[in-house]
Amino acid sequence: MPEVPEAAEVPQAVEVPEVPEVPEVPEVPEETTEHRPRRRGRTTLLIAVAAALGVVAGACTGFLVQANRAPDALPSLSQATLAQAKGPAPEPLSAAQDREIKVDGDLRKLLLKRPSGARDADYTVGQDGWLDLAGYAETYDKPAYAFGDLVADEFRREAVVNWREGSSLFVEIRLVQFRQQDQLVAADDTNSAYHYAEGKPHTDSWPIPGTGDGMAYVHHSPDRKAGYTDVYNADAHAWRGDIEMEIWVSSGSPVPQKKIMDLAKRQMERL
CB-hemisphere CA count at 13 Å for 101? Predict the structure, then answer.
């Protein structure tokens, strides 16, 4: 038998490489000069220089023309001549009349004098008539808070005097002075004292004549503490300029209105 030829091998398909895509050419936008700054050409520059030279030349010419002219006489003043006052000039204020000299001097001299018959109080306030910042802060319910508050308020100094009348009446007067560079601290502190005094129960109040908004208070409800005698209180507050006035009266019996009002009026008259 004739041999059967082997089947011819089928050729495999040849892989054809992919043709890379040709990137699209972006469309070229039409030229526009709408948002493009224009260059300054040489012609524009020459024109600008010529204009500047023209201004300078004109100014020089005007100056030379004015310099060669004779000066014109000035018109007369429309205001009438002020007549000089007749008589001697007023005398400057004396030290007693100049309030600034008084309040910048020894502040203790402006305190009320101890009345005749009065004695030293049972306690000492300050030293030699002065109460420093720390000592004044101790008179508040919260001394630490008050100390920082007084520093912020530009506390300057404080003069104080106290005495005892009779068997149980005590008087203490304070003149507190502030620097007052930024605000009227004396007035603000006095207003705070008004609110504090008015908040106490069974309190009567009266304006102090001649002091603007100065007020005096009598508290009819005494301070009570076991083992101690009841203490009745009265106080007065006012201010003038950079000085705040505080008057505190305590007694074993109710404080008369006349007493606190008299102290307040006489103390403010000395300011």
Answer: 7
Residues of the chain with pLDDT under 70: 1-51, 77-80, 95-100
Task: Report the distance separating Cα 197 and Cα 168, nearest Å.
Answer: 22
Residue in the block written with tokens 């603007």:
212
Q: List pLDDT tens digits, range 120-133.
A: 988 888 899 999 99
pLDDT digits (tens, 9 = 90+) for 161-205: 999 998 899 999 999 999 988 889 999 999 999 999 999 999 999
What does the H/E/C string look like for 198-259? HCCCCEEEEECCCCCCCEEEEEEEEECCCCCCCEEEEEEEEEECCEEEEEEEEECCCCCHHH
Q: How many CA atoms lie within 13 A of 130 on its CB side?
A: 9
Scan for tokens 């300029």, then name that residue.
241
